[in-house]
Amino acid sequence: MADPFQDVDSAGPEFVKMFADAMDVRQSDPTMEKIVASYLDRLPFAADSLTIEVGAGAGAVTRRIATLAHPTKVVGYEPSKGFVNEAIERSSGHSNLSFVVADGASLPIKDKTVDAVVMHTVLTHVTHPESLLAEAFRVLKAGGSLVICDADFSKSTFSSIPNDPLNICAQEFVREFVTDAFIVGKLRTLIANAGMEIASFDVTSRVVTSREQMRPWVEVTTKQMVERGDIGKDLADALVAEHDRRAELGSLYGYQAFATAIARKPY
Ligand SMILES: C[S@@+](CC[C@H](N)C(=O)[O-])C[C@H]1O[C@@H](n2cnc3c(N)ncnc32)[C@H](O)[C@@H]1O
C-alpha cells in the first residue's frame, strides 16, 4: 500500500481525525516542542513578513508559528481538504493565520514574496521532494529562510530487548506510512541542488514513552496486518496487550531521530 500521507483524503475521515489528533499530541511532546522552538527562534518575524508552512496537516506547527509571529501573516498550505478543515476548526483565535488547500509542488503564490518556508515532517512522505524544494526556492525572497524538519524513520524503533516483538509495529509503520525512510540522509544534497545555502543541520533524539503517543501506531499497524491477512486477530490483540502492559509498567520505549536543516536563498 502507498503511504496514506501522499493522499490523506483518500485514506478517509477516520484517518484524518485520528492523525490530526496524533499530530497535535506529537507537537505537545516536550522534545518536539524544543525542536520546533529552536528553529522558530532562528526565523525573523519582521512586522510585514510572510511565513508559510508547506504540508501543514491539521495545523499543529502552523498554530505555533502564528502565535510567535503575531501579528504578522502565517499561511498553512496543505493538499488534504480534510486536514485543512481540521486546521481551520483548531485555529480559532489566531487572527493572523489562514489555511489554503494546495500541493507543495504548485503553490498559489507569486515569485519571491515569502520570507520563510517551513516543511515539518513532509518530505519523508513525498515521492519527488525536489519539486517541493524548487517551489520553495521560487516563492522565497532573496535571503529568505527554508526550514526542513523531518524524522529519520530509518532509525525508528520500539525495541527494548533483542528481537523485540513490539518492534514489528514500528517496522510496519515505517513500511506502510512513510515514502522515503532515508530522506534525512539526502536532505543536504537536495537543498544544495535546489540552489539554497545550508546554514545549519542538526539531529535530535526523541524518545517516546507515553501510551498516548505510541498506542495509535500499535493500533493502526496491527489492524492493517490483520486486514491484509498477514497475522491473525489473536496476535494483533497480543501486541496491543503487550503495549498496554509496558505502558502500565512505565517501560514503553520508542526511539526516533529528527533532523532540522535551516537554509537560505542566496541574494
Ligand atoms: C505527517 S504530516 C505533517 C503535518 C504537519 N506538518 C505537522 O507536523 O503537524 C505530513 C503532511 O504532508 C502533507 N503532504 C503530503 N504530500 C504533500 C505534497 N505534495 N505537498 C504538500 N504537502 C504534502 C500531507 O497531506 C500531511 O499533511
UniProtKB/TrEMBL annotation:
Domain Methyltransferase type: 53-148
A molecular function (GO) term: S-adenosylmethionine-dependent methyltransferase activity
Record Pfam families: Methyltransf_11
First-level EC class: transferase
Annotated keywords: Methyltransferase, Transferase, Ubiquinone
EC number(s) recorded for this UniProt protein: 2.1.1.-
Any GO BP: methylation
Top-rank taxon: Bacteria
Annotated InterPro entries: Methyltransf_11, SAM-dependent_MTases_sf
Protein name (record): Ubiquinone/menaquinone biosynthesis methyltransferase UbiE
